[in-house]
Structures are given as C-alpha cells and as structure tokens.
Amino acid sequence: MAADRRHPAVNDVYLTLVGASNTLADVQRRLDLEFRASYPDHANPAKLVGRVKRVQEEVAALKDLCRDLLAQKQELIDMMRTSLAAQRSATQRLLASSGLPLMTDDEEAAYASLKQVIDEWTDQLKPMGVRMGRMKTPTRSSSPQSF
User: For the Ska2 N-terminal domain, which residue ranges apply (predicted)?
Assistant: First the structure.
C-alpha cells in the first residue's frame, strides 16, 4: 500500500487528517439533519432573512401610506365640519327670516351627536401624530359652481 511506503511521521499526519476529515463529515451530516428538522423543505435562511427585510420595508411604507390616508381623511372631515356649520347657520337664518319654526330638539341632538363623534375622532388621531395639511385643496375658479 501507499501508506506503507511513506515516512512514519507523514503517515501519522495523514492518519490525523483522515480522522479530522471523518469528524468534519460527521459534523456536516449532523448540521444537515438539524437544519432539515428546523426548516421546511427547500428553505434557504439567507432568502428568509431577505424576505423578512423586504416585509419590514413594506410595513414601513404601509405605515406612511396609512398616516397620509388618515391625514387626508381628517382634512376631509374638517372641511365637511366647516361646510356643515355654515349650512346649519344659513338654514337657521333662513328659518328665522321666513318665520318657520327653528330646529327641533331632535335635530339639535343629532347635530350635537355628530359634533361629538367628530371631536372624538379628532382626539383619537392626536396621539398618532397624524400630519395635517398634506393634501392639496382644489383652487376655486371664478366661475359659479352649481350644486
């Protein structure tokens, strides 16, 4: 055999390296078994980490979109509140000038309830730090608008 023709010191090194190679092969086999038991078939930890990072980036982008949507929703609510108050005031003036009875208690209660709901909504948004004023408002033209 070839091992018999070598110097005894080289033979000892060779046997040590063969033993180390066998030990490393056993470690690799055990790691493979542990990996297969830990991860589903064809799972690649590097790809999983990459996917987790992409999902985290997508979540951050969705958070920004939600904040923008909430800001736009709040802006719309504020515009509707202003419009509703102006229409209510105009209705009360028209009723008073026409001699018709003013708003009933039920109508006043409904208006107060709506105001309370809007105020509660606004109070809920304050802790979230929704940025206001990001939505562009349409510019008014000089031509009359029909409703």
Answer: 7-115
Q: Compute the distance between CA of residue 87 and CA of residue 97 in angstroms, rounded to an integer.
A: 15
User: Distance between CA atoms of 84 and 78, rounded to whole angstroms?
Assistant: 10
CA distance 13 to 17: 6
Q: What are the pLDDT digits (tens) for 53-85?
A: 999 999 999 999 999 999 999 899 999 999 999
Which amino acid is it at 118?
I
| pTM for this entry | 0.51
Q: Which of 89, 85, 67, 88 is nearest to 77 (CA)?
A: 85
Which sign, positive or negative, has the C-alpha torsion 59, 62, 64, 66?
negative
